[in-house]
Design brief:
Length: 279
């Protein structure tokens, strides 16, 4: 009940106080499924679109694909920590102290985590919006560039010009902090319409990361779980933001903080953004 505060329903998924599902991003009485590409495929196959996965770009690195849905052209992969404990501690301390963490308030009160939104140098001033929450952008500091120079080659991106140009960051101070079911389908990223890639980096205590299909087929495994520990990487690729949702659930037994950095490519800047006007 505390989550709903004085409201009768969740502003994002529209789950009501009595537990009934609404017409938002949650399951239940949501939007109808999209038209399929064919009788057997949800999306055009990779052989025709040319989508290449990260494991194909860096075959020598052990990316483990926990979700490989060729029909939906949706993929999620996990890479166990390739760093030492000293390295991950340095990463954690740098990010924790180098970010001005905020806890924005929505219609139901403060969100259950702290957050920040950073963008690459170049003039982008796009605000990150989800639901009724808005987070102002901050330009990548030097430590972000240094960190990306270490992490991006693990995903096959060795040229700085191909790096992601934005990063959403969340700080979960304990297992009571979380993020609910959602897709990263904001207009900035165009994940509902095109193949996109999202690269996630976790620091701190291990937390559960869950993925579920928006329109599960009969007999389909309902939820995939990934345990993301200190220094682990995770990717979401292809059309996953169209066909799946993900969350970090509450875990009452978990003690200690976790930071998650989620790098993305902003491809549709807002009309008032200088980058949009330059184009």
């Amino acid at each position: 009940m505390n989550v709903f505060a004085s409201k009768n329903e969740c502003f994002k998924c529209h789950t009501q106080r009595d537990g009934k599902k609404g017409e938002g991003k949650g399951k239940g009485d949501g939007p109808p499924p999209p038209n399929k590409h064919s009788e057997v495929l949800w999306e055009q196959p990779r052989s025709e679109t040319g989508l290449k996965l990260i494991r194909e770009a860096v075959p020598g690195i052990n990316w483990d694909y926990c979700l490989s849905d060729e029909s939906r052209r949706s993929f999620a992969a996990h890479l166990a920590c390739p760093f030492t404990k000293d390295q991950t501690k340095q990463f954690y301390d740098t990010v924790k102290e180098g970010v001005n963490w905020t806890q924005p308030e929505g219609p139901m009160g403060p969100i259950p985590r702290k957050t920040a939104w950073m963008v690459a140098p170049g003039g982008c001033n796009c605000v990150y919006r989800y639901g009724r929450i808005e987070v102002e952008p901050v330009q990548f500091p030097p430590w972000m560039i240094q960190m990306m120079s270490v992490i991006m080659p693990l995903t096959g991106i060795t040229d700085m010009s191909g790096w992601p140009n934005s990063c959403n960051m969340n700080l979960y101070e304990d297992g009571g902090m979380s993020v609910g079911w959602h897709s990263d389908d904001e207009s900035l990223f165009q994940g509902k319409f095109n193949d996109i890639r999202i690269i996630s980096f976790s620091l701190g205590v291990k937390r559960k990361f869950e993925i579920r299909a928006n329109w599960p087929e009969e007999g389909e495994r309902p939820v995939r779980n990934i345990m993301l520990g200190d220094g682990d990487l995770c990717t979401m690729e292809g059309m996953l933001q169209k066909h799946f949702q993900h969350r970090v659930p509450k875990e009452g037994h978990v003690e200690g903080p976790r930071i998650n950095m989620t790098w993305r490519w902003t491809v549709k800047h807002t009309p008032k953004c200088p980058v949009s006007r330059c184009r």
